[in-house]
Amino acid sequence: MSGNKASRQKPCHHCKSRPASAPAGASSIHYEKFWLYRHCSSVQQSDRQAQKAGQLFSGLLAMNVVFLGSAFISSMIFNNMAITLVDVWILLSILKVLCVCWIIYYLLGTRRQPHAVLYQDSHAGAVWIRGSMLLFGSCSILLSVCHIGYSAVVIQCKSSMEILFPSIEILFICTQAYFLWHHSKDCIQVQHNFTRCGLMLTIATNLLLWLLAVTNDTLHTEIEAQLRQVEQRLAGKAPFSHVCNETTSCTYPNTTICEVFQKGYILLYPFNTEFCLVCCSVLYVMWKNVGRRISHPQFPHVKSKFKLQGVVFGPLLGTTAVIIGICVFMIYQVQATSSGPNNEVFVIYYSYYLVLLPLMSMGAVVGTIIHALEKKELDTVKNPTRSLDVVLFMGAALGQIGMSYFSIVAIVASKPTNLLHSLILSHSVLLIFQTITQNVFIIDGLHRQPLMSPSKEEEMKEEQNHEAHDQRRVSVLELGQEIRKVSLSYIHNYSHLNWKRRALREISFFLVLCNIILWIMPTFGAHPVFENGLEKRFYGYSTWFTIVNFGLPLSVFYRMHSVGGLLEVYVTA
Length: 573
What we know:
The protein is mostly helical. It is built from 18 helices and four strands.
């Protein structure tokens, strides 16, 4: 009887730890054969294995979709007789419809199940990234409207997919923007694998839309040819007509409407690529958060508020840089829209960069040194959003660095002989250095624990000491002495670090404003890297078009993402 009792009790005891004083016959019992032993010791391990298997399967799905779409796009580029742009649009339209169907199912089915969303990631879906998503999404919708309008004007030369594809694009953008705005923080706890596959399918679709936008210069070439014919017509050299193919001649019933759609399409084109990149980053965080159970952090979360108190030089210098940058941008745009930018405008544009980039690099280097001098603890808590931020900073920086190196090779190989070539070369070198130093400063700042005010620190120390008092039963007098010691020590350290905090805030705010103006200028039409003609002549139109459309959206995304990272460094300084 006693032996049976021991055999019934022993497995549960073994799930925790085997006692030192075990009976002699206990060693002969094979506890791994018991169901309770097998399962109580491996529930968490099985959960982790299931999560990894789901992530692997959904990742393979996305990889296959991306490879299939890339094969279609590459075939269109190298053999457009077999695979045409319409074929690529059909594939992407099918993918977008599938994504829209999954998003609707998630909103109406998955999320409404019991215990579907028990946790939300407070770090995911920051206001600034969701706001930029709405901005880029709105501009992408306007881009699709311009595409539809342009195709409708010349409908005799276009297929029905020229109107159907941007119409599906509008539906896809609206559905995805609504989904990410309201549910980017979700840590879904049901239907893990299906949700992961849906998220990865949406990510793959956005990547293919970005890849097509980067490599497809068909409409740009067509619009440029039409604009050249307009110039020739105004000069009395040629009639205004455009030949779609060898047999069909296309005439425009209203040239004003055509010009509006053409200008709108060219101006809004970069926003679509930005929207795809932003959506991919938010969707990836949601994918990492599927099935995630958020526990209490090791360090208490401190909600820092944005305040301008105590900063003077950073806002002053940054505002000056923004005002000068807007003036330079307006001069450039006036010249570009009238007779085309000339050498004097390019000299002004690059000279502005040659003054601003060294100041930004110096500020980032000084900020990194201050971070090294600080004694603040590193935040080592697992955070998918911060991990993605680091990857995005490093990945998006490749756009600027890559274009800069291509420009350096083109200029050096062409043997620069005038002032403009020397300015472009200096601009490329300084841009590489500034990007690297700013990345180091931001990534280092994101991994620092926020520095709390003395009153908040004293309050937390009081709570901790009260708990210790309950456990150790110390006297009230001893507790008060401990609190005073901690408070005086912290106030001393706080006053000692005050100049470092001010310096970090000044540098961060200055870099925020500088990145804003460096985001505005290329986003709204200032593209001297494509319009100066040097690299375009060296690499050829199509090659340089692909390089710029690959690097420029990443460059704009990097500036926008840097603003968010620098603001976080500012408020936690």
